[in-house]
């Protein structure tokens, strides 16, 4: 797993580089009540955990995810990039 460094912006907020290449702060993360998980949101949560912005435990609790669900997102990104997170392509990437 590729580990990122956390950085601090001019407002003193900790951030990591998100999946689109833009800075990602805790305020930029999907809301806790997210019901529709699009590719970008999944990738943002994975990037936040990888970069140390939030812990795995925080992510699981905040988003009501199982460990297996999060790890499957992470594996899909590692193997196939963000396209691997498409639910319509799940069979193709297995």
Automatic annotation (TrEMBL):
Region (Disordered): 1-31
Pfam families, A to Z: DUF1153
GO molecular function, one term: sequence-specific DNA binding
Chain intervals with Polar residues compositional bias: 1-12
Record protein name field: DUF1153 domain-containing protein
